[in-house]
Design goal:
Blueprint lengths: L4 H4 L10 E2 L10 H16 L4 H19 L6 E4 L2 H9 L10 E5 L5 H8 L6 E5 L9 H7 L4 E7 L11 H10 L3 E5 L11 H4 L3 E5 L11 E5 L1 H4 L39 H17 L1 H21 L16 E5 L3 H10 L2 E2 L1 E3 L2 E5 L6 H13 L8
Parallel strand pairs: 1-10, 3-4, 3-5, 5-6, 6-7
Antiparallel strand pairs: 2-8, 7-8, 9-12, 11-12
Helix pairs in contact: 2-10, 3-10, 4-5, 11-13
The structure holds pyridoxal-5'-phosphate.
């Protein structure tokens, strides 16, 4: 079946008004996601406290997220953010033994370094894998730092600064051979690429719902490989993390036998409505189909950038790239501002202008950005 991506654009009203290349910050809002939030409001107005339905909504999110990651629902904790998931996970590690090293990379989003550095108070040693001269982080740089003292390798899938995708299968193989676990921060990939946690063989994965998963801010997920759950007891906890939420027992901490033990308090019910609707769109299309579309669009944009002599700094190899393509600019904030005035929505980090693609983008979006960049040729900055 051939997917008619152009007809899907009608479900995202902002696309009729703007060239929206900003899903790596916040997705375009789908009509069904807005409707879902309205349904929550109707519930509040007309029913009051509809807890039976709300608890089911949280479970629906867990189950849909498991499908996206190709995992089991019991392996998913529904969290308030990616940071909340990483914090709960970190609280379950013991850094008092010889294996106390956490390896992160230079490509990390701040939260996935800061939280591990916060564990230094508990005995963790955090090391950063540096980039090579070409700006990428090859496997050999990980090989030098992952050793018998490494407890965890916590790495991003796609770098939020430059769009480069790390060699996750290679890193996982290396880490496991040396007895270390791997946590994947797939926030800049999941929903735009297929993230099959079983195939990738990662032990943990975190992300959130507001970017390529088409949901909203205020909700994230933590995947914990089934075989590891019972051996890990988070010291960050709460009543929604207990084996029996309704027990109301204040004499002990009795964590859930599932990944729910990494949760804490009352679920963000309004967000569940939005996230359920967003995940349904992703699953209806299928992440393999979406990934193919995103690869086509990013490649097209990179080819056009070459043509206009403003080449991207994101790796050109398909397996080293996700949904984000970056170009350098002399004064990137100014360039971003000019594009915004032209109704082209992008974002920037460091000196890099980021264009992030989802299935709802199209050739005309690439064209609009290329034409605009040609008009701002003076901003071109060589590598
Ligand atoms: C790769 C990556 N990790 C983590 C985060 C932070 O997620 P949260 O704010 O849900 O903790 C982001 C947010 O942009 C991100 O891009």
């Amino acid at each position: 079946m051939v997917t008619d991506f152009n007809s899907l654009r009608g479900r995202f009203p902002v696309l009729a008004r703007k060239t929206y290349l900003n899903s790596g910050s916040y997705c375009a809002l789908a009509d069904s996601v807005k409707e879902a939030i309205n349904n929550y409001m109707d519930d509040r107005l007309l029913v009051g406290a509809n807890w039976d339905v709300w608890v089911m909504k949280n479970e629906a999110v867990r189950s849909l997220m498991a499908q996206v990651l190709r995992a089991q629902p019991d392996e998913i904790a529904v969290t308030a953010s990616a940071s909340a998931g990483i914090n709960a996970l970190a609280s379950a590690f013991d850094f008092t033994k010889r294996r106390n090293k956490v390896v992160v990379s230079d490509f990390e989003f701040p939260t996935n370094a800061q939280i591990w550095h916060a564990q230094e108070l508990r005995g963790a040693r955090v090391v950063h894998v540096p980039r090579a001269a070409d700006g990428y982080i090859p496997l050999e740089n990980f090989e030098k730092l992952i050793d018998e003292e490494t407890q965890l390798v916590a790495v991003t899938h796609v770098c939020f600064r430059n769009g480069a995708r790390l060699d996750i299968p290679g890193i996982v193989k290396l880490a496991h051979a040396r007895g270390a676990k791997v946590m994947l921060d797939c926030y800049q990939a999941v929903g735009a690429l297929t993230v099959d946690v079983k195939k990738l063989d990662v032990d943990f994965a975190v992300g959130g719902m507001l970017k390529y998963l088409l949901g909203t801010a205020g909700m994230g997920f933590l995947y914990v490989r089934n075989e590891l759950i019972s051996s890990m007891t988070p010291t960050q906890s709460g009543w929604f993390a207990q084996a029996d939420i309704t027990a109301m027992d204040i004499t002990a901490n009795r964590p859930s036998p599932t990944a729910r033990r990494f949760e804490a308090g009352t679920p963000a019910v309004v967000n569940c409505y939005a996230v359920e609707a967003g995940l349904k769109i992703i699953l209806e299309l299928g992440t393999d189909t979406i990934e193919e579309r995103v690869r086509y669009l990013t490649r097209l944009y990179m080819d056009r950038l070459e043509e206009i002599g403003w080449p991207g700094i994101t790796p050109r190899q398909d397996e080293r790239r996700g949904p984000m393509v970056c170009v350098r600019a002399k004064q990137v904030a100014q360039l971003f501002g000019k594009l915004t005035q032209q109704d082209i929505v992008t974002s920037f980090r460091d000196d890099n202008l980021r264009a992030t693609f989802h299935f709802y983008n199209c050739e005309q979006d690439v064209d609009a950005l290329i034409q605009a960049l040609l008009g701002h040729r003076a901003e071109f900055r060589d590598i």
